[in-house]
Amino acid sequence: MGRHLRLRWGPVFNPATGQVAAPVRKAGAWGMAIDDVMAWDPKFAQLWHQAYAPDGSRLAAIVAPSFGAFTVAVDGTPWAATFPVVTDLVISATGGHVAALGSNDNTAFAVLCDGKVWGGRYDMAWKPVFRPMAPIGRERGRGGVHTVVCDGKAYPKSFEKCFAPAFSPDGTKVLIRGIEGGRRIGSWPRWKPSHG
Predict the structure, then answer these.
(1) Which of 50, 104, 138, 154 has the fewest CB atoms found within 10 Å of its own CB?
(2) Domains of the chain listed by start with CATH number
(3) Could you read off the pLDDT of 51-93 as tens digits, one per residue?
(4) Could you tell me if 132 and 169 are in contact, meaning their C-beta atoms sit under 8 angstroms apart?
């Protein structure tokens, strides 16, 4: 029980300054305290899973602006889109992008990225992965088959099983590993997602 609570509400250190951020409840609502000073107003029905960008420039957390309606807040400002369930908060290495997963019923998942909700809904979704120099790549399953979705666009081929994608050093190509026809595909497709 103690470990579970620590993962949700436990304090986190700013990697650049060493300051401590922790969700706190005051007057019946949740806010964020940084080094014993209230940094985010206590206006949330829930606030947890806070995380700093690797350079300490941004602080994000999963919040509920109202009971049962969850989203992500970045530096205290919540995104407009809400879901009954939000999980897997992740911040890019540069701190410029934030993503999470949202679901209405734990059976259809969407990717939330920088305040926008991608159009697809999936039976299962894995934690978002950022590529080195651009928005986001994402692997997830749909209807018993798996695919990779990058920047909101699905790779045109599906697999029986799909593993975590790997990005080229410049972030312009995605290496996809999958199982097709009961065996690993011999040459992995290299996909250059279009942007726009």
Answers:
(1) 104
(2) 1-121 (2.130.10.150), 126-196 (no CATH)
(3) 999 999 999 999 999 999 999 999 999 999 999 999 999 998 8
(4) yes
Q: Which two tokens stand for residue 162?
A: 């799909």
CA distance 140 to 70: 21
Mean pLDDT, the chain, rounded, equals 80
Could you give the CA distance from residue 106 to residue 77 in angstroms, rounded to a whole number?
25
- Sheet of 145-150: strand order equals 124-125, 137-142, 145-150, 153-154
Q: What pLDDT shows up at residue 79?
A: 98
**Greatest CA separation found in the chain?**
60
Residue 87 C-alpha from the chain's centroid: 7
Q: What is the pTM of this model?
A: 0.76
- Whether the CB-CB separation of 22 and 33 falls below 8 Å is answered with yes
Beta bridge partners of 60: 51, 74
Place of tokens 């666009």: 153
